[in-house]
Amino acid sequence: MTDIAASQSVSNPDVAAGVAQFLSPVVIDLTALVVNGKQAHWHVRGANFIGVHELLDTIVDHAQEWADLAAERIVALGLPVDGRLGTVAAKTTTPELTAGFRPSNQTIAEVIAQIDAALAAVNTAVKELDELDQTSQDVAIEIARGLDKDRWFLFAHISE
């Protein structure tokens, strides 16, 4: 009988550690975007309320999917991920979201700042994973592509 626990070890622990080093901040910032995006979704106000409200739900769903994708890549390589609320609050690079009700243009600007912070972590992962693990880099590229699109959709609401 095969010992499943023993066969789950990573073929190259240095690669796994490097991937975790660059994808863990992505998980952290995307998890913060999920929480803050939902907060913004609940408190947005203005003439374009419904469009922004629904778009924020979509952005939150995407951020959750991408956080899961990055976390599962780390776990697939045999290392744990710390996405607990306390860890996310302590380590996120996303800016603080203003509490309470906000006009849609201010809400959008704040969520774009959240996305920009997450994109910084993702773009670092794309760059650093190039020589380390291209499969993990592909994960980061997929996330970057999606965040860029979500940012564009938000920005279109406030651009003139």
From TrEMBL:
Q: Which PROSITE patterns match?
A: DPS_1 (PS00818)
Q: What's the short name of a Pfam family annotated to this entry? A: Ferritin
Keywords, A to Z, come to: DNA-binding
Query: A GO molecular-function term, please?
Result: ferric iron binding
- List, for all copies, the residue spans of the domain called Ferritin/DPS: 32-159
Q: Which domain of life is it from?
A: Bacteria
The record's comment on protein family reads: Belongs to the Dps family.
This protein is called Starvation-inducible DNA-binding protein
